[in-house]
Amino acid sequence: MRNKIAFSAVMMLAAMGMARAQSLDPIAMRQVGMDLETGSFGFIRSVVAAKGDVRPLEGPAKAIARWQAMIPSLFPVGSDKGGDTRALPEIWSDRAGFDKLAMAASAAATRLAAAAKAGDADAVAVEMKALGEQCGACHRGYRAK
């Protein structure tokens, strides 16, 4: 009997969690993530410009890599409406291109993290530029101005 009660409680909590997860607003989620990514990238850029110690940039670069890998999942069909979004219809009509740019940005951020961990300031600068180019390409093709 005790196992049945525990199982029922777990199932109820799981159902509540799924209902809550389904109510998350993908537009708000991606806007918050983009704001955080902008701050992380700005920090990276400022350290590189100041020719500072690049080792602390590993964490922010890893976060950007993980975020970029998640971006496609935050653009489900229908999330082009219902909120303050600048997402262009091309995200959904050219999904492969959109996903490819997100993965390329994730890869650049991963390389940036590795360069930061190694303390290689020159490689960090190169990968920061590559990451910025990937972000810019996505914004030019998939975000309204």
Structure described in brief:
The chain has 145 residues and is an all-alpha fold. The chain has helices at residues 2-22, 26-49, 58-70, 90-93, 95-118, 121-142. The chain is built from six helices and no strands.
What characteristics describe this protein?
single chain, 145 residues, mainly alpha, Four Helix Bundle (Hemerythrin (Met), subunit A), 6 helices, elongated
Structure in words:
This protein has 145 residues and is an all-alpha fold. It has a single domain, classed as Cytochrome c/b562 (Four Helix Bundle (Hemerythrin (Met), subunit A)), CATH 1.20.120. 74% of the residues lie in helices and 0% in strands. It is built from 6 helices and no strands. The protein has helices at residues 2-22, 26-49, 58-70, 90-93, 95-118, 121-142. The longest helix has 24 residues, at 26-49. It starts with a helix and ends with a helix. The mean pLDDT is 89.
- Write down the domain tally: 1
> What is the H/E order?
HHHHHH
Helix content: over 70%
CATH homologous superfamily placement? Cytochrome c/b562
Q: How many strands in all?
A: 0
Unreliable runs, pLDDT <50, ≥5 residues?
none
**Estimated radius of gyration:** 19 Å
Helix tally equals 6
Which fold name is given in CATH as the topology? Answer: Four Helix Bundle (Hemerythrin (Met), subunit A)
Helix vs. strand class:
mainly alpha
Query: Averaging pLDDT over every residue, what do you get?
Result: 89
Subunit arrangement of the protein: single chain
Major beta sheet, specifics?
none
Name the CATH architecture.
Up-down Bundle
Outline = elongated
* Distance N to C terminus: 60 Å
Top CATH class: Mainly Alpha
Into which percentage range does the β-strand content fall?
under 5%
